Structures are given as C-alpha cells and as structure tokens.
Amino acid sequence: MTPITEVEGRRVPLSNLDKVLHPATGFTKGELLHYYATTADVLLPHLRDRPVSFLRYPDGPEGQRFFTKKVPPGTPEWVTTAQVPRSEGPGRMVLVQDLPSLMWAANLVAEFHTHQWVVQRPEVADRLVLDLDPGAPASVVQCCEVALWLRERLAADGVEAYAKTSGSKGLHLLAGVRPTPSDLVADYAKRLAVEAEKALPRLVVHRMTKSLRPGKVFVDWSQNAARKTTAAPYTLRARTEPTVSAPVTWDEVEACPDDAALTFLACDIGSRVRDHGDVLAPLLDPARSAPLP
C-alpha cells in the first residue's frame, strides 16, 4: 500500500521510497523526496507561476525517460493547473505553487523544466537564458571562460547576469528582463551568441550543427523561444549521480580549475544555501530586471 504523508494539510502519496534512482551513489527515492522538501524554500520561488514540464525517469537515468507537459493523469484536484499555449496547441500544464504540490511532483521522479515566462503573461519573457553546452574535449572550464565574456557583454547593455550549473556538462546564464515578447528576447540572445563566436572563434559556436561543436562551447540561445523550457534552478538531473542544477557565484566561475569544481550533488546544496543564500534571488525582484536594448 502506498504510504500517505500529510504536507501542509494536503494528503500526498509517496511511493517506492527505497528504490535506488541514482545508481552511482545509491541515492534513493526517499532521499530525492527529502532533498526537495529541504530545498523548497529556495526552489519554489523559481517555479511559482511558471508552467512546469517534467522530464520523468521513474526507473532511474538508465531506464525510460520521457517528457510530460500535459497535466498527468491522477493529478490531485488541489494542484494548480492552467491553460497555456504549447507547440502542439493549447493545453493544461501544472504549476508547482507550494510545498504539497512540490512533493506530489517530486514523487513522479522528474527534472523540473520551466519557460522563461509566467502564466499571467504567456509568451512574454521576464528571463533571458543562455545555455553553454561544451562539445568534448571542451568542458565546463571552457564554459566558464565563455560565461565571463558574456557577463561583460550583457553588462555593457545594462543587463546583470547570474550563473548556475546545468547539472550536466555545462553552465546556464540567466538574467532578469523587463517583460518582453519571447521572440524579441530570442533575437537578442542570438545576437549575443553570434557576437561571442566572432569574439572567441576558437571557443564558441552559435549553431547547433554537431560537426561544428567538438572542442567548442555551443551558446544555445534558442531556449528563449516561447515554447522552449530550461532546467529550473535546484532541480535534480537524471544522471547516474544526483547532480543538481546549482546556482554558482561569479568567484566560483572565475576560479573554475576543472569539471569537478562545478559539479554539485544533492548533499552539497544545503550547505551552499547556508553559505551563499540563493545566488539567483535577484532574478525574483522585478525592480532589478533590465530593459533589453
């Protein structure tokens, strides 16, 4: 029988707590749920009001993985949903607004991916994202070099950038922007990627073409498109270790000596939040959002 836990007055079923999900460390589903419960204070503000897509991996990263964008069958009636535009036509998606909703969603075993806009303003972005994806033998070390160039380029336009690990191989740069149609944000992000390639031709490529990417950092600007999503801050990733898309300081980016220096597991996040707070908290303050040039 599936155990039922009460979370802030809601009855939340939590199943298969002993199931190993991240085999390299023996990280179980119970530990995954504990991670999300203890990280909720910093995670939830980055999810709130943003329709969530779930990359589900219920049997671990080596099992079946699949995206869920529609409201999953069996979703409790108290979980907030909203009708939103999607590539395949309008549909209802989940909003993770509170701790009970987060724990219900975490029980699905999923990465959390969000749009760059909130449900009150569909397809009008309030965030800009640049996904720095290294092509071997390039690594996160090269991503850091590119990130520093992009930080200065954005600053020249009055846009303040923040960084987080992707939780996989690279880095994500994020910036708060005044509400702007997503297509215009995507156009601006593409211009930045093209400029980065011109300035750092040995390091950067702005096109996804695989033959161009070995040894370089692909600056993926396309995730600013209205229908695209990006891994949310603090989400676990579907990898053999329980890696996290973790906010990082610019000091850490500048000092990055190797891949391991910017790899963070679930067990690392509590102490990082105690030491640094939420490095991405400024993104939550509309007053700190910048107009795009």
UniProtKB/TrEMBL annotation:
It comes from the Bacteria. GO terms for molecular function: ligase activity. The keyword Ligase applies. Gene3D superfamilies: DNA primase, PRIM domain. Keywords: Ligase. InterPro entries: LigD_pol_dom, MtLigD_Pol-like, NHEJ_LigD. Residues 28-278 form the DNA ligase D polymerase domain. Coiled coil: none annotated. Transmembrane segments: none annotated. Pfam families: LigD_Prim-Pol. This is ATP-dependent DNA ligase. It comes from Streptomyces cadmiisoli.
